[in-house]
């Protein structure tokens, strides 16, 4: 018997609690009956369908013809066709029955309970490929074959796919990843594991990954099928309205190049404006009109495509025939409203007066809560902001098509901890070694002594593959961390940019210098440091910002400051250890700050001598 020695990354060996529950449910619905199916042959048939659906080739080579003849022999077993039919019913005919995605996924896998894991995946892909291939076959032939044209009409397929290219491209990428994952599982299932001595823990870990892979392929197939079904329902709608539509309403003119914002920025803006608890109270009070401005005298093909996409899918109004926008109008926008190719949102009140030359950051920070989006409303909102941590995370909500409960609960947990004034530590960077060292020291020091601290990894502004891998390891290996999704990390950094720009526009009208310092530090250190951490009391103005080496020094000094936590608080105790008083006696310095209820009972420290300050209340 052969022996294979392997080593596994511990970060990938321990499934999370949610994954353990999911795996247990998957195993309950798994009861193979021993029937034999040639997964390789069926998978090859699926690959052929998907290949010709996404390419312009129309001829089979000799090898593919040979594969197809073998598949026909295997496919003579009636049960294969019956299973695919049942999968199609699960994928498409239950699309509008209102069941949630999790329930539909488990029902689909329960339907395939009598098959091996790799066979489940191949069958699911076969069902999706059948519908996807049929769609493309009809679409390609509908303009040259009367039968295909009639079928296209009966199935209500769109006659022009130009507007759906981004969606179809995303669907094609998803199916490609599903195929890649399925091929790996099929290969793993064919390995002679029983004949080779392997590390049992490694085999068990690999099987856990396989179970999860089957689950995600099933879940992705359901999502993919819903997109195919939606292509029949989504029809381009362009309704012409007159200027009277906007009478007595606040109007936001969103002005940009046809490319709009980056996908992350646009997604966040839409989320803030339309997924906000205040939106129901303001329904019909304001409208957004998109005005694309060209950078040249004529539209390019890419600009035309972007505009067509926007005009059919954004919940905004658009000006008719923007290509004909007069040069005088564009000159006015550039000179009077200071448009310089970066997107702006000009706000006009219900009386026709311009009340904000650029409310885009206000919209991103507070969403519809900032109504009527005037400059004075922005100034007013800043007067209520005290805590950097609360401002950074408030308003960031999981924006997933299926709204993952795990991610939603994690976000809710962060806000609850912050509002309760608990200690919060956010950290970032993409240096894996530093991240691991930081996590180990946190576990050895603060968390081992049961000191309360909520930890959140926020990565980097640029979402590199390193950040994604670290984030994946966080959710699997760091139970002490509050998990945060990739989407929310992108929203976090987008929000920081908007916060800084908005504060700088206030020009000292609001007493939020501490927030500006924190946000600016985060944005600047993200570009330079390999790792960093920011700690603070959730509701306090006081934060502690530390670079890579300083973080480790702080944790190394844990025995020195841990005894002062109950007296000065976590941040105060660390600061007293890192920055001891510079003078032997108090400096006598005093500072007057606006009243803030959240500061009552909190420890404040002198900026000069670093000693705790006594608090007094004065009345004007």
UniProtKB/TrEMBL annotation:
<dbReference type="InterPro" id="IPR039299">
    <property type="entry name" value="SEOA"/>
</dbReference>
<feature type="domain" description="Sieve element occlusion N-terminal">
    <location>
        <begin position="18"/>
        <end position="236"/>
    </location>
</feature>
<dbReference type="InterPro" id="IPR027942">
    <property type="entry name" value="SEO_N"/>
</dbReference>
<feature type="domain" description="Sieve element occlusion C-terminal">
    <location>
        <begin position="376"/>
        <end position="619"/>
    </location>
</feature>
<dbReference type="Pfam" id="PF14577">
    <property type="entry name" value="SEO_C"/>
</dbReference>
<dbReference type="GO" id="GO:0010088">
    <property type="term" value="P:phloem development"/>
</dbReference>
<dbReference type="Pfam" id="PF14576">
    <property type="entry name" value="SEO_N"/>
</dbReference>
<dbReference type="InterPro" id="IPR027944">
    <property type="entry name" value="SEO_C"/>
</dbReference>
<protein>
    <recommendedName>
        <fullName>Protein SIEVE ELEMENT OCCLUSION C</fullName>
    </recommendedName>
</protein>
């Amino acid at each position: 018997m052969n022996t294979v020695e392997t080593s596994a990354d511990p970060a990938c060996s321990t499934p999370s609690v949610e994954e353990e529950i999911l795996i247990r449910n998957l195993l309950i619905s798994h009861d193979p009956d021993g029937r034999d199916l040639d997964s390789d042959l069926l998978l090859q048939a699926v690959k052929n369908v998907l290949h010709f659906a996404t390419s312009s080739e129309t001829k089979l080579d000799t090898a593919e013809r040979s594969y197809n003849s073998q598949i026909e022999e295997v496919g003579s077993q009636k049960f294969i066709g019956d299973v695919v039919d049942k999968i199609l019913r699960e994928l498409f005919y239950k699309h509008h029955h209102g069941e949630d995605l999790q329930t539909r996924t488990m029902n689909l896998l329960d339907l395939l309970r009598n098959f091996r894991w790799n066979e489940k995946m191949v069958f699911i892909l076969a069902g999706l490929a059948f519908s996807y291939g049929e769609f493309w076959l009809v679409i390609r032939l509908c303009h040259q074959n009367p039968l295909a044209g009639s079928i296209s009409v009966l199935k209500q397929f769109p006659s022009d796919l130009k507007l759906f290219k981004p969606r179809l491209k995303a669907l094609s990428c998803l199916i490609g990843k599903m195929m890649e994952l399925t091929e790996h599982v099929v290969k793993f299932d064919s390995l002679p594991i029983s004949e080779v001595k392997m590390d049992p823990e490694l085999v068990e870990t690999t099987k856990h990954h396989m179970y999860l892979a089957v689950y995600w392929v099933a879940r992705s197939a359901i999502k993919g099928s819903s997109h195919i079904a939606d292509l029949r329902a989504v029809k381009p709608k362009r309704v012409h309205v007159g200027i009277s539509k906007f009478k007595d309403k606040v109007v936001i003119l969103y002005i940009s190049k046809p490319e709009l914002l980056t996908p992350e920025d646009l997604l966040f803006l839409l989320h803030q404006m339309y997924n906000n608890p205040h939106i129901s109270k303001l329904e019909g009070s304001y409208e957004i009109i998109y005005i694309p401005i060209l950078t040249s005298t004529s539209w390019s093909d890419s600009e035309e495509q972007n505009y067509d996409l926007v005009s059919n899918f954004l919940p905004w109004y658009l000006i008719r025939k923007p290509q004909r926008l007069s040069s005088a109008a564009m000159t006015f926008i550039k000179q009077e409203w200071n448009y310089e190719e970066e997107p702006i949102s000009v706000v006009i009140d219900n009386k026709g007066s311009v009340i904000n030359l650029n409310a885009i950051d206000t919209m991103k920070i507070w969403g519809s809560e900032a109504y009527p989006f005037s400059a004075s409303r922005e100034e007013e909102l800043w007067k209520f902001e005290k805590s950097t941590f609360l401002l950074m995370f408030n308003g960031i909500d999981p924006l997933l098509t299926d709204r993952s409960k795990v991610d939603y609960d994690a976000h809710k947990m962060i806000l609850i901890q912050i509002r309760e004034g608990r200690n919060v530590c956010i950290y970032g960077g993409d240096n894996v070694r530093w991240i691991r060292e930081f996590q180990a020291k946190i576990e050895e020091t603060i968390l081992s002594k049961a000191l309360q601290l909520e930890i959140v990894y926020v990565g980097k502004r640029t979402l590199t593959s390193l950040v994604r891998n670290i984030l994946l390891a966080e959710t699997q290996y760091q139970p002490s961390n509050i998990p945060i999704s990739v989407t929310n990390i992108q929203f976090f950094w987008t929000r920081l940019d908007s916060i800084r720009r908005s504060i700088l526009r206030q020009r000292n009208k609001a007493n939020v210098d501490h927030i500006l310092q924190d946000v600016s530090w985060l944005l600047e250190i993200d570009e330079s440091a390999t790792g960093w951490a920011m700690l603070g009391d959730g509701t306090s103005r006081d934060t502690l910002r530390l670079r890579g080496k300083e973080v480790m020094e702080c944790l190394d000094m844990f025995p020195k400051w841990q005894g002062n936590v109950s007296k000065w608080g976590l941040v105060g105790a660390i600061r007293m250890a890192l920055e001891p008083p510079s003078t032997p006696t108090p400096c006598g310095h005093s500072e007057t700050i606006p009243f803030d209820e959240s500061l009552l009972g909190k420890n404040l420290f002198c900026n000069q001598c670093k000693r705790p300050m006594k608090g007094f209340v004065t009345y004007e």
